[in-house]
Amino acid sequence: MTLPASADFLLVDGSFTVPLEIPQQAVIKGDSLSLSISAASIIAKVTRDRLMVEFDTLFPGYGFAGHKGYPSASHRAAIASLGPCLIHRKSFRGVKEFMNE
User: Fold this and answer.
1) What per-residue confidence (pLDDT) applies to 101?
2) Rounded CA separation 92/47 (Å)
3) Which residues, in sequence order, are bridge partners of residue 24?
4) How far apart are CA 74 and CA 98, in angstroms?
5) CA distances from 91 to 18, 22, 38, 52, 75 (A)
6) Is the four-CA dihedral 37, 30, 2, 67 of positive or negative sign?
7) From first to last of its 101 residues, what are the pLDDT tens digits of the chain?
8) 22 FRET partner, CA 20 to 30 A, in 32, 63, 79, 82?
């Protein structure tokens, strides 16, 4: 998705900025200090949860619709049983141990 206008300034939740040529400021605990960051965080979470429900149909057996990809016991068990799928972050603990590469 592309925004209809470019951003003049970025507020980034966390301690690191992003590699873009736009003026920006990292704000530690930004979601509790900035209404803009807080609203963006909510939108991102809702969007991610919807994607996880879609991924549940694409990658059956992992239970993404239920745990939304958080490292629950059922999620860990599915990775151990089925191995990681295409959307798993291969460098994450709990996934990389089950890589067959």
Assistant:
1) 55
2) 22
3) 10
4) 15
5) 20, 28, 28, 19, 16
6) negative
7) 676 788 899 999 999 999 999 999 999 999 999 999 999 999 999 999 999 999 999 999 999 999 887 888 998 999 999 999 999 988 888 788 888 75
8) 32
Phi (first) and psi of residue 61, to 5 degrees: 100, -15
DSSP state of 5: S
- What the block records as the tokens of 7 is 């951003």
The two beta strands, 24-27 and 10-13, are parallel
Strand partners, 12: 26
Residue 56, token pair as written in the block = 């549940």
